[in-house]
Structures are given as structure tokens and as C-alpha cells.
């Protein structure tokens, strides 16, 4: 009798097992703090003095001028989110999705319009050399990431951080000159608010296998104010606020400038030019 009961019990439990879905442990949802590290803070290197307030590096003869102070004809509103669809070439995302660029031109500089969102170049690029100058306004208020935050998205995908890092500590992999949430700058090369900063960026686009994984990863070198801050740095993937870098298949992409939602006074850009490599 005992044996019969046991067989019935075992049979029932097998039946129940067959009906219930197996449950696996779920990882804790990520928060933004999980990918922020504050130490070591890159040491401060004071950039060399500029001789004047004028443009820092004039464009060479073969440069494509993206912004020279006269207009925004080379720019368009960027889609609300970084639109990244597997298998789609970034150049397919046309202005119709983001409308016209609505940032403000003031005294020959390009001032971020936070309400209108990011803007991006109409042209798309693979490998390039980019020059861009940016200014944190004097008297800017706010702390950490909420002070002069903007960004330059390489191929519309990978953020080179723009921030006021002058006397303003934040997580090292989120300060000016960082590949956002990945690689801190080698040193803190900030000029103080009211003085123009420059980035010279040398970028090698990734290549992909057919399955969408990287064959070769994107690589970036950045010189800020004449000082090396990224040296042939391998970019691991996308640069999200929350979560790990993701690998997303893309083709050529625009230069995208960030309208960050912080409440600090908007920053300005000028003298933006690019050389395709
Ligand atoms: Mg940013």
C-alpha cells in the first residue's frame, strides 16, 4: 500500500513540475550609481594660456565646416532618443524625424537650447578628425553632472562628455573628456568658466561581423586644450546613463550635440569642423 501511495505522489509531483514554468534568479535592476566611480580623480593640468579670445584653431583647407557662426544649415534636430535600430545605417535618420535645429546663434556662437533637444549634423561620418570649441558661461551654478552638461556623440552613438569640470567634482568616468561611463580623461584639462575649451578628436569607426558584434571596436583619441585626455581609447559600446555598454550595429553616423536636462545656464559651441579620414 505504501508503495502504491509513493508512486501516486511521485507521479503527481512530476505532473506539477511539467506544468509550472522554471524560474531563474533575476539580477537586481541596475541603477545609475552602479556604473559611476569617483576615485581616482584625474589630476589637474593647467592648459597653456591662449594669446587672445579669438578662435583657437582655424580650420585647414580640406575641412568640412560644420559651424562657423553664420548659420545652422548643416544641422538638424536629432530624434528624441538616440535611434539605434539593428541593421540600420545611421545616415537613414533624416531631419523629418527631428525637425530643424533650433539652437540659438548668439554673437557667432551656438548656444544650447535645452527645450528643443539634441541636434546633429545632416552629414554622416565614418573615421574622422573633429575640432570643436565650447564655453562654460561665467558664474554658472550647479554641482556634479548638473553643471554645464552637454556631450558630443561620435557617429551619433558614443558620448564624449562635455561638462564644467573646473572645481566641480563628479564621478571620474563622467567628467569632461571622459568616454561617458567608460573611460575617465587621463587628466583634468579644464579651463575655467568664461574661457573657451577645445577638443580635437581622432576617431576610428567600428567594423561589424554579420551577427552584429564588433569585428573591430571604435577607438578615440582626444586632446583637450592641447592636452591628451584620451589616448587611443577603445570604446566598449554605447554610453548609457544606466546600464552597461551595449553593442549595436550601425553604419556611418552624425556628430550629435547633447541638450542635457540640467537647470544650469546653457553652454556654447563654436568653430566646429571635421576632416574625413
Ligand atoms: Mg553629457
Can you offer a commentary on this structure?
The protein has 277 residues and is mainly beta. The chain has a single domain, classed as Exo-inulinase, domain 1 (Jelly Rolls). Helix content is 6%, strand content 26%. It has 1 helix and 15 strands. It has one helix at residues 2-19, and strands spanning 64-67, 75-77, 104-106, 109-111, 119-121, 128-135, 150-154, 158-162, 196-204, 207-208, 214-216, 219-224, 227-234, 256-257, 268-276. The strands form 3 sheets. Strands 1, 3, 4, 6, 9, 12, 13 and 15 form an 8-stranded antiparallel beta sheet that branches. A 5-stranded antiparallel beta sheet has the order 2-5-14-7-8, with no helix packed on it. A hairpin with a 3-residue loop joins strand 7 and strand 8. The protein starts with a helix and ends with a strand. The structure holds magnesium ion. Magnesium ion (MG) binds next to strand 7 and strand 8.
Gyration radius (Cα, Å) is 24 Å
Assembly state here? single chain
User: How far apart, in Å, are the first and last alpha carbons?
Assistant: 84 Å
Approximate shape: globular
Structural class, by secondary structure, is mainly beta
Assess the beta-strand content as a share of residues. 25-35%
* Low-pLDDT stretches: 5-16, 82-96
Provide the descriptors you would attach to this structure in a database record.
single chain, about 280 residues, Jelly Rolls, eight-stranded antiparallel sheet, 1 helix, 15 strands, binds magnesium ion
